[in-house]
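Final report, Chapter 2: Outcomes

The project's central promise was a pipeline that accepts a single protein chain and returns its three-dimensional structure in a standardized token representation, suitable for archiving and comparison. That pipeline is now operational. To close this chapter, we reproduce one record exactly as it appears in the project archive, with the input sequence first and the structure output second.
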Amino acid sequence: MGHQMSTRPIRAALVAAATAALLAGAALPAAAAGAHPCYPALLTGHGDTLVPEGATWDPLHGRFLVGSLRHGTVQSVAPDGSTRTLVDDPDLVTVVGLHVDAARGRVLLADADTGGSVRSTPGTTYRRAWVGAYDLTTGRRLFHVDLAAVAADGGPHVANDLAFGPDGTAYVTDSMAPVVYRVGVDGSASVLVRDDRLASPAGTFGLNGIVCEGDTLVVGHYQGGTLWRIPLSRPSAVEQIRVAGADGRLVGLDGLLARPDGAVLGVTNAVGGTGHDAEVELRSSDGWHTARLTSVRPSADIAPTALTPGPDGRVYQLSGRVDLAVQGTLLDEFTLRRV
């Protein structure tokens, strides 16, 4: 594969191209793409009760990665839908959101405990928020950091999703606390913002999907169906984004994805509330102080939870049927659908 070539200039060029493709949502250049198999528009994945909630594209190895709510692992997904374990760290409980940091050859993930993992315990259920970083080639742990300890509030916690800033800093949402964390490239962690307006009623999910638009974080609130703006230069200046045309249609807002043309895509579902299974598109002309809901389309799959760039520059949507899992029905299949 292209990334394994021995000369540094070639490797550097491919890594740079792959990174640009991931961030821009563009197809890989021919030199890199030719080494990768083609993925279908509808990929049916299979693995023993994986129940994936998050998915990401690995441009360095030309593959999708999904995280397992049930087993606390990260799996690579082949074009035929077969899965292979990349990360199996016994300290992981439930892998929720995950994203590839192609520039550093690693994948970062949110590790929580929502009670449905084979590694769940009464003492950690809804009391766990960690972030981990793992080598993309070997699956070796680079760091694993306890964010709930950083919050130091003794309350419930669920690490949910993450996004990268321009310098590689990761920002992580907590669905059970009104907190967004900052995690440096070295694993150093701190609270970026704590704001009671970001809270949710007890027992419900709050903060969820997150993207970085330049020097601004755009964060979705699952239960409230709201969007929030957090400027990285002054994170205390949190403000709710006024969304024209929403009319309650963002309730159940889960995964978010920033598109190169400035739009933010999202999926909504009814896994833990009253939302609908849909794909949404949002745009802003004033730096995300306000936004417009420009598109709402019913989802072809039940309970979509994440969006990720794909190998051809198109967006793929994940459905791991988390809705059934929370009711106790575990499936061995999931779908990644080009949208």
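Archive annotation: DSSP finds four helices and 24 strands in the chain.
This record, like all others produced under the grant, will remain available to the consortium after the project formally closes.
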